[in-house]
Amino acid sequence: MKSKRYLKNIILEFRYYSCINIIIRIDCKLVMDKITQLAKKREPFLFIISYDKSRKIIEPLKNIMNRDIFFKIDNYRNYRAKPIDKKFFFQKSIVDFNLYRESLNRVLEEIKSGNTYLLNLTFKTPIDTNLSLFEIFRYSKAKYKLYYRDEFICFSPEKFIEIEDNIISTYPMKGTIEANILNAKEKILSNQKEMAEHIMIVDLMRNDLSMVGTNIKVEKFRYIDKIKAGNKELLQVSSKITAKLSYNWRDNLGEILDKILPAGSITGTPKRSTVDIIDKIENYNRRFYTGVFGIFDGNNLYSAVMIRFIEKEENRLYYKSGGGITIDSSLKSEYNELIDKIYLPI
Predict the structure, then answer these.
(1) Rounded to two decimals, what is the model's pTM?
(2) In this predicted structure, what is the pLDDT of residue 30?
(3) Which pLDDT does position 27 carry in this prediction?
(4) Beta-bridge partner residues of 176
(5) pLDDT for the residue 16
(6) What does the pLDDT average to over 149-158?
(7) Is 31 inside any structural domain?
(8) pLDDT, tens only, 300-311
(9) DSSP characters for 236-254?
(10) Considering only CA atoms, which of 53, 119, 124 is closest in space to residue 264?
């Protein structure tokens, strides 16, 4: 009798989670259809999509005013910039080294087993500051910024995709070094681990674009951007990959986004199995962190990856950060990179 009840419970649980998955898929389709409907009508809108695509926020730009949603995307913004006018403090708790080593070793075992070749491993870190989420958003300097209803903010240096003149472009960012290190640019570009990681991501993003476009090109390979990271400056390595879309891409915009998400630069390769491993190894739910946000301006689309991310949970702030792991990763350097990425660009 006990085994029958156990089997019955397993079946009921299976049916429950199957129903949940069906509901999520239906909801995903409805939201992606909304994206397409707005794009077809050439109506400008903002979109915010979580890492696992389970949560999506789609708002026509005309409805965003006074909705406690603020953004900066390329030359578009819906708030007034303001220089910082108060003293502030910022403290970060450090991820336990032994916990990080254990997680890194599990990733390396998966790599040795051939289940992944590159995996973006992330953690969430408690932080303390006298600044509110909105103040951090308003004072911070970044190419792409988002504030959402006192729940989370990001100030991202990384584009996701942009679509102009029927050309879709993506800009994977892999490779980070402090700018004040002697010969920093030469060191990051000649680092074999960083080179291998970048090549894998470029190949992954080429494959992603091939699902939605034709005439795939790597237009720029491993160019350097300098970004402000608190009291440091970092050099980050990016590439530009393009593809040609059909002239009626706006009539399929929701489907295009669905096919290429989640962003390869913050998952790894091969994407599907790597995402499964991330779900097993990371000790928290990424939610909107490493998702994407952007705008459709009525004609073109611009977007960014949600990295450099702070989220409020039960009135406590958590900073989420990470980096790509390959078979050649060094425990110490990967751990230090995780910590270096926890900063306010003020």
Answers:
(1) 0.86
(2) 64
(3) 55
(4) 236
(5) 36
(6) 94
(7) yes
(8) 999 999 999 999
(9) EEEEEEEEEPPTTGGGGHH
(10) 119
Cα distances (Å, whole numbers) of residue 323 to 201, 326, 335: 13, 10, 9
Asked which of 72-76, 145-149, 231-235, 324-328 is least confident by mean pLDDT, the reply is 231-235
Number of domains in the chain: 1
Q: Which of 196-200, 231-235, 290-294 is predicted with the least confidence, judged by mean pLDDT? A: 231-235
Structural domain of 241:
2-340
Q: What is the domain-level CATH number for residue 121?
A: 3.60.120.10
Q: What does DSSP assign to residue 74?
A: T
Question: Model confidence over 112-124: pLDDT tens digits?
Answer: 999 999 999 999 9
Q: How far apart are CA 242 and CA 205, in angstroms?
A: 10
**DSSP structure string for 273-323:** HHHHHHHHH-SS--TTTT-EEEEE-SS-EEEEE--SEEEEETTEEEEEEEE
Contact 194, 175 (CB under 8 A): yes
The verdict on residue 319 lying in a domain is: yes
Pick the closest to residue 209 from 256, 254, 251 (CA basis): 256
Query: Is 346 domain-assigned?
Result: no
The answer to the question of residue 345 being in a domain is no
3-class secondary structure, 122:
strand
DSSP labels for 170-204? E--EEEEEETTSTTHHHHHHH-HHHHHHHHHHHHH
Check: CB of residue 268 under 8 Å from CB of residue 118. yes
